[in-house]
Request: fold
Amino acid sequence: MKSVAVIGASLAGLYAARALRSQGFDGRLVIVGDECHGPYDRPPLSKGFLTGTTTDQGQLALADAEEIAELDAQWLLGTRATGLDTGGRTVLLDGGRSLTTDGVVLATGATPRLLPGPVPAGAHTLRTLDDAQALRANLSSSPVRVVVIGGGFIGAEVASSCAALGHDVTVVEAAPLPLVPQLGPAMAEICAALHADHGVTLLTGTGVARLHSGGIETRVTAVELSDGRLLPAEVVVIGIGVRPRTDWLTDSGLPLDDGVLCDAGCVTPLPAVVAVGDVARVNGVRAEHWTSATEQAAVAAQNLLAGSTVATHRSLPYFWSDQYGIRLQFAGRRLPTDTPRIVEGSPDDRSFLACYERDGRTTAVLALNRPRPFMRLRRELVNQALSA
Amino acid sequence: MIPVCPLADLPTGESVRIDTAPPIAVFHTDGQLYAIDDTCTHQDASLSDGWLEGCLVECPLHAASFDLRTGAATCLPARRAVRTHPVTVQDGMIYVHHAAEEGTAA
Reply:
């Protein structure tokens, strides 16, 4: 393989590029990214970057100048990929350009879901550094009323950051309780209580009908709920999930279904095309997790260079969230029928360790502010998964 | 010189965090004591909560790894080293000698 194009210059793309080089690929490496920024870490964007503890953009950078030089890649930043030919050998780029390549890594990530209708000024999504800068600018003045639409991890983290900045925050969640799909009802209820601990209002069981805006700048003025209530707001954050960025692959012939379908080795039906990170549906599962993106990259690179699936991605799902000064960590594969049991600490103290159990066996583990025992159990689960 | 705790209170394989600014983590590995800056250089996480294996400690958040002897980051996602601090034991008490601030922290 003489040339590889990595489409996507974020976490998964960078880790794939690193993996290709560390596994001995010494051909031409082109990295295409539609943002004008080099690879940066997204997790701080909803936390320290909003509250001001991560002020320097350099702190977000995933690679320093030395490493960028060592990668010896050609970077096409501010460039959007618009298509992939059916053989997977030509990547079309905006502006009428194209790239011919022997191998392709698809790492285009995901894009926030939007509400129907136009997005007025003051209404934000939070995915990119530019998004975070725009939101931060809107939060820098005197206290405002913030409505966060969506009570998932992004919504909860943004609400926490806004509350820490002294704003008046309301979270609107369509489901009866946020985070139930991830944590199950009992643990989700404990996490939902964190909002009230910090003076944040949580409204559940109601969707959003539309955003109101007015004035000459058509700034957002209120959020109208589907039950008719009107929540005045100067800033609105829409955190209702993401969809994988596969639009540009529609004519590629690759199978797409909420992500690029690939096998357990991140390989698509075209052996010279692999997919990693949020855009990839690996063996039927699309994981929007930081750790999955980094782990998949190494596997995908190995298979791309081998020309077939010689390695598979078998690690255990892991994610974390920081909200209201509490670090939440979760690892494992939980079924809705698994029963959580608190094995250490107490929910009242917002510090505990819970194991999800099925037939007397631990399937997943959740910790609030208990990093040490969490890590021990996570390692045990990983070892179980690898030996299974 | 900062008193940490009696050596008897820090068995092999254990670690303790001291609330200096910035905080320092003290580790008792097999027969050795080490002190490093407690905060992972990748993202805000306490290395005293980390997984100790030989002379390496793994960050409890993203599995970055640091060499206790040198402070060097031995595995991604961390890229920058943590500072190391000398440790001594006097009369059964562990002391950390705060490394001089050399310029600004990286």
Observations:
- The longest helix of chain A spans residues 290-306.
- The first strand of chain A starts at residue 3 and ends at 7.
- DSSP finds nine helices and 25 strands in chain A.
- The interface with chain B takes residues 18, 41, 43-44, 48, 53, 62-64, 67, 290-291, 294, 320, 322, 327, 329, 371-372, 374-376, 379 of chain A (CB under 8 Å).
